[in-house]
Amino acid sequence: MKCHIAFIVLGLTYCAVVSASVARVDENIWKNLEQATTTNVKITFKKANTKAAFERFNSLKLTSRNAKLNSQYAILKDHTDVVQADVIFDLKKASAHGKKHEIAQLWISSELIVRNVDKEVVEMLSVHPDVASLESEWIIQLDNGMVRTSIPSGNNTISNYQWGVVNVGAPEVWNAGNRGTGAVVGVIDTGARATHVALRYTYRGNQPGQNHNYNWYAPTGHDAAPNDNQGHGTHVIGSAAGTEGIGVAPGSSWIACRGCISQGCTNFDLLQCGNWMACPTNTVGAAPDCSKAPNVVNNSWGGGSNNPWYDAIISAWRNVDIVPIFSSGNAGFTCETLISPGDRPLAISIGATLANNQRSGLSSMGPTVDGRINPFIVAPGNEIYSASHMDDTSFISLSGTSMAAPHVAGVVSLLFSRNPNLNVAQVTAALRAGAIPHAAVGGSCGGIPDNIYPNNHVGYGRISAPAAINSIPQSF
Q: Are 13 and 6 in contact, with CB atoms under 8 Å apart?
């Protein structure tokens, strides 16, 4: 075999068979390597063809949730292993010669994240016959929902229900015997203060026979226990599954993946978290156990518009009956201000309301770039009182669609507690059936006035837990 391009990395000779096989390399990778000795890259593969793998899974016609979870993982992981085998082998050879890489398979999309690669390895990968492209890491600013109104201190246990919990009718559902027991909420965010008085009893890792494995994951750093240095994630979890009157489903359990560090979320961490939610691992990313997957995943983050980068993950979640909840964004002063991934077709996008049931002025409005009505539904998102990451007894009030989304995730937990065999289409139908039409703030987006439902201001309306639950049969 004739070698058209050859070079040496620490004594290992790499050869590209034809010069036309040179991969596309994001220019930001070269810029990063001008400022530092190593960078992080995502590898896409020429023969990924995940569509065929998904079609194989869909052809199985599985009914039980565990069968779906395990089969999807087995099929996609096997496909990914075959596609990536030669590149991983070469990366491990380079690591054996002093290149300290961290390799993370994105088994859903057959992509590969490699951290701490230097210029030599980038050059090697760029001419590898299996590699289609090398992409750089980018950051989504966590700015949709951090309007801070107060930080109480000391012992501030809430004795009454916060207004959003009452507004969606959660206490009425509790009084009927449903507090979300058996349902699991997954949260991709800044992490969690799992020792907080309102979170400690609903964190699955604190429950009998459990630990942090399969209940907590941090792609960057692999921290052994939950933590949150920013507060957004702790607050979000409290609204979905907190006790002390702050959570919609206080009988449910929560798990978390830290996709955001401080004020920014890297696409690499968010991608790893998306894979982890579909089949959780231990805290170091090994020994997967798909049966630990949650029923619903809350994603109070996003940026840009009409960006398909998270589509494969959302599709994989829906395949195994995981409900994908996303905030719609906080740029609602004009139409067409929705953010991705919430504006994508398979996501369930959530807008925010005030206490009077009108749309919050922050809440982003549709239509989407391709003309679809969005958001899907709205929920309380203004001055929402929930857990603070500052200590184990403090609470904080925040506003935004980030706060609205976990109210819906909590209602979804109540739905799964009533009937654990629901699929995403059935959950979506129940949320729609339970939506209460109400006035928005006037005007028309996408040619649809705000008194016609669904519309691009509030979708089908404000969520109602009792109405949604009464629309589905109870499981016995």
A: yes
433 is written with which tokens? 């059936």
Q: With contact defined as beta carbons under 8 Å apart, do 448 and 414 qualify?
A: no
Tokens linked to 336: 């067409």
Q: Dihedrals φ, ψ of 459, to 5°?
A: 65, -130
User: CB of 275 within 8 A of CB of 111?
Assistant: no
pLDDT single digits (tens) 286-322:
999 999 999 999 999 999 999 999 999 999 999 999 9
Rounded Cα distance between 309 and 290, Å, is: 23
Q: Is 329 left (phi over 0), alpha (psi -120 to 50) or beta?
A: left
What span, in angstroms and rounded, lies between the C-alpha atoms of 288 and 187? 18
259 vs 275: CA distance, rounded Å: 11
332-361 per-position pLDDT tens digit:
889 999 999 999 999 999 999 999 999 999
Q: Map 361-399 to HEC letters.
A: CCCCCCCCCCCCCCCCEEEECCCEEEECCCCCCCEEEEE
Q: Three-state SS for 120? A: helix
Amino acid identity, residue 165? Answer: V
Question: What strand order describes the sheet that includes 24-25?
Answer: 24-25, 131-136, 39-45, 111-117, 102-106
pLDDT at 27: 96
**CB within 8 A of 356, min separation 6: which ones?**
none
Distance in angstroms between the alpha carbons of the first and the last residue of the chain: 65
CA 121 to CA 157: how far, in whole Å? 53
Percent of the chain with pLDDT over 90: 84
The dihedral sign for the CA sequence 44, 46, 50, 51: positive
From the list 223, 219, 154, 225, the residue with the least C-alpha distance to 193 is 225
Cα gap 63→93, rounded to integer Å: 42
Round to whole Å and give the CA distance between 310 and 241: 25
Residue 180: closest CA among 361, 4, 417:
417
Hey, how many other C-beta atoms are within 10 angstroms of the C-beta on 150? 11
Q: How many CB atoms lie within 10 A of CB 282?
A: 18
Which strands sit side by side in the sheet containing 296-299, from one edge to the other? 216-217, 253-258, 184-189, 296-299, 323-327, 348-353, 377-380
Residues facing residue 8 across a β-bridge: 13
Estimate to the nearest angstrom the gap between the alpha carbon of 277 and the chain centroid.
8
User: pLDDT band at 196, cuts 50/70/90?
Assistant: very high
- The angle subtended at Cα 288 by Cα 286 and Cα 294, nearest 5°, is 125
d(CA 29, CA 26): 6
Model pLDDT for residues 3-50, shown as the tens digit of each residue: 434 444 444 444 544 445 689 999 999 999 999 999 999 999 999 999
